[in-house]
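Exercise: predict the structure of this protein bound to flavin-adenine dinucleotide.
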Amino acid sequence: MKKTVIDGVQRYPTNGLKVLVIGAGTSGMQTALECWRKGCEVEIIEKADELSPIGDYFTITPSAQTTLKDYPSMYVQYHNRVYDCILSVFAPGGDCIGYEVVEWNRSNDGHASPDVKISFLNRRPEYAQMQLDQLKRLAIPVHFSQKASSMSEVDNRVIVETETGKKFSGDICIAADGLGTVFRRREEPIRSDVMDSGYSIARCAFPTSHIKPDTPAWKLVETVKEQPEFRIYLADDLHLILYLTADYVGIALTHPDDTGADESWSNLRDPAVLIKVLEKSAATWDPAVVSFMKQVPVKVVDWKLKWRDVNPSWTSASGRILAVGDAAHSFLPTSGNGVTQAIEDALSIGECLRLGGRENAAWATKVHNKLRFERTSVLQLMGFVNRDEIHKADLSAIKKAGKSLDVGFFRLGRWTWNHNPEKYATDNFDACLAHLRDEKPFQNTNLPPGHVYKPWTLQEENERMAKGIQSDLKQNGDWSV
Ligand SMILES: Cc1cc2nc3c(=O)[nH]c(=O)nc-3n(C[C@H](O)[C@H](O)[C@H](O)COP(=O)(O)OP(=O)(O)OC[C@H]3O[C@@H](n4cnc5c(N)ncnc54)[C@H](O)[C@@H]3O)c2cc1C
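Solution:
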């Protein structure tokens, strides 16, 4: 059968599968697009009344953009705003430790999405709007104001009930509803497994025009027209990221959590909280940074960095329900990979469902799970290792050495961004299915070459860090550029 073309998107022949997606976040919307493109009928249910305007910037690396070219209108919309950033590291007092270009631009061998101009920074609300616009052009329904409250499986169908009493059904249900997912509560009702990581991240974004030319902060933004910058200040047990672009600037301040027993996951706080956090740290801060903080015109979202231990099982026993994105794997921002892995999931499950078709749909989710788990688990662990590395970095030694910045998320490794998750699913689906169904041998190759996968827990990581032991994660396999 021939592909049909809508809005320039070539859609595979319909496969008779109905996929319900819970959550219109980055992963839910991309999952819906990919499943639709692969021939499924798709609907999204989302608890919010509309897309949230909250959010500043996130990083999407080349491995998550391998199918952008398959959506020609979205491809154009994406390229309307590309921030090809320079990365820089500063000491709190304002001493520049070094500048660097992003890893994939340092490599002579290219990356997984050569046809895409990779934007190191993406404005979250704009990216989400771009995905929603594409869903609309493809007439994929998004039901807002529908909070999923339960899921049940009846005769090979999944029924999702929402708080308004509405029922939706599909052959497959994909829970893309973030860390507090209905899926995990259903699978493990007794385990309350969302934990505090001990840190919060205070974030906001606002138009660059709010920074006044006659203030010390001006020196931070006066050059951004020519060259946007991802600037990180490293202090003891704290780091501050400034996203400096010509139209919007953003702040992400990761700090030890001071909200104690407060159970809410995110608090809208007065911008003065930023100054308070800086004052609490032992460092003396560059007056330009303090002036920058004093000019923040918006409330700051202080997200508690919650954590759920790595769980290898992302599907229900039958395989008809699957979790993707944050619902399957929580990431610390220091992994630089939360959004990338959420989108990689979408690219992988779309292809697995195409290959599995109606007959093997419930196996397809399990194949996806097997193909993706070890990769995401290593990257989740990398978030802790990166945070530890940057919080303990010897800045004067780095400056003295004068070589490329090699700490934290400045070093992800070629294996992370030179991966094509859709192609990986195509190439490995049959062997992985034979492994799951017939116990044939299978080994993932989407890890650092030579890496030997080791399961790990948050408790072990906390103990390692408390003892001051350096992780050997980046010595396990090839993490080079
Ligand atoms: C409003 C918002 C702003 C963010 N801003 C940033 C940022 O600036 N920088 C950054 O790095 N990361 C940000 N994040 C986190 C980042 O987007 C995610 O970590 C990553 O993209 C993975 O996305 P996800 O789709 O798996 O989860 P999420 O982005 O958390 O999306 C989950 C979606 O599911 C919906 N949902 C939850 N429960 C239900 C339910 N029961 N029924 C129906 N729908 C439900 C939520 O409303 C949300 O739309 C933000 C997340 C949100 C929700």
